[in-house]
Amino acid sequence: MTLPDVDARGTQHCETTALGVLLRTQGLDLSEPMLFGLGSGLSFVYWDSKRMAFPFLGGRVKPFDLTRNLASRLGLELVVRETSSPRRAWENVAAPIDAGHPVGLQLDSFHLDYFGSKVHFGGHVVAMYGYDDHDAYLVDTDQQGGAVTTSLAGLAQARAARGPMTAKHRSFTLSVPTDLPSPQVRITAAITACADAFLDPPIANLGHRGIEKAGKLVRTWLQRTDAPQRDLPQAALLMEKAGTGGALFRNLYRDFLAECTDLLDSGHLRTGHRLYTEAATLWTEVAALITKAGESGDTQCLDQAGTVLRDLSRIEREAMQSLSRLTVPVRSPTPPARAD
Fold it and tell me: Which residues form the Butirosin biosynthesis protein H N-terminal domain (predicted)?
């Protein structure tokens, strides 16, 4: 059973890719930056513990918070199913697909056949639009191939995995109401909610305080691992390509703010866009310095990365302070000219 006419385009981030697939089947086609921004997806976390092999840098809100935020903001009907039963978990996926609706899944990417980098990540999200006796048909990011297949056995393992950020066979569907509010009218609320959370985090590991903390601790990363040539370049690759702490999510938010400047006339918005354009470039610089430190063992590279992260904490704080003041209403469309 494979759904026909599914727009199976992959984009840059897993959760927004899945959301795009689910919403386009119902006629709602928003850009990936708009999905990310309306879901108040931008954040930051520096996460480390004795049980972790290496620190984790997260550049977005927790897995699935973006989906919940987007559904709440646009009035979408979000149906989430979780279970400890593999049999029921499969029924929760097969039933909507058989009824003609793709399904979102949260799982551990380690067990997916097409993933080249075998790293456990329990917060990965894909859209599933079909299956046969052996394989599941999924949509993942462009980096992972867009429309892909994985074995049903591998999919079952990925969904059943337990560990950090995993969920119990989580699957979800979205329904678009007939009286959907214009996404434009939700922009201000989405931006200010994101800014307020970033500016006032409950702990020092989050938001702009988390970036500042990363700037201090990244200088110790060569002592944090016995395999710096492996761990530091891998951390930099995840930052830059998967977006766990680097430019990908800053690029998405920059592009979201650029779209918003066509809808809102606000100096605060233009300031935020300018500063996030600067921040995205600096995150790429941080990733390059971390990679070089791992390959060369040069501690000065990490010192430089720490200095740039300190600057990023300031830049992103200033950007969010400006965006938190956003109160300008959406521009009214220009009325068509009348023919006399």
Answer: 13-141
Q: What is the 3-state secondary structure (H, E, C) of the chain?
A: CECCCCCCCCCCCHHHHHHHHHHHCCCCCCCHHHHHHHCCCEEEEEECCCCCCCCEEEEECCCCHHHHHHHHHHCCEEEEECCCCHHHHHHHHHHHHHCCCCEEEEECHHHCCCCCCCCCCCCEEEEEEEECCCEEEEECCHHHCCEEEEEHHHHHHHHHCCCCCCCCCCEEEEECCCCCCCHHHHHHHHHHHHHHHHHCCCCCCEHHHHHHHHHHHHHHCCCCCCCHHHHHHHHHHHHHHHCCCCHHHHHHHHHHHHHHHCCCCCHHHHHHHHHHHHHHHHHHHHHHHHHHHHHHCCHHHHHHHHHHHHHHHHHHHHHHHHHCCCCCCCCCCCCCCCCC
Query: For the chain, which residues make up each domain, given as ranges?
Result: 14-30+77-175, 183-323
Q: What percent of the chain has pLDDT over 90?
A: 78
In our burial notation (b when 16+ CB lie closer than 10 A, e otherwise), range 86-112 reads eeebbebbeebbeeebbbbbbbbbbbb
What are 85-128's pLDDT values in tens digits?
A: 999 999 999 999 999 999 999 999 999 999 977 788 899 999 99
Task: Give per-residue pLDDT as tens, 60-90.
Answer: 999 999 999 999 999 999 999 999 999 999 9
pLDDT band of 245, cuts 50, 70, 90:
low
User: Is 14-30+77-175 a CATH 3.40.50.1460 domain?
Assistant: no
184-243: per-residue pLDDT in tens? 789 999 999 999 999 999 999 999 999 999 999 999 999 999 999 999 998 888 777 766
Determine whether 146 is exposed, middle or buried from the number of CB atoms within 10 Å of its CB (0-12, 13-18, 19+).
middle
Calculate mean pLDDT across residues 35-53.
Answer: 91
Neighbouring C-alpha atoms within 13 Å toward the C-beta of 286? 31
Question: Which amino acid is present at 276?
Answer: Y
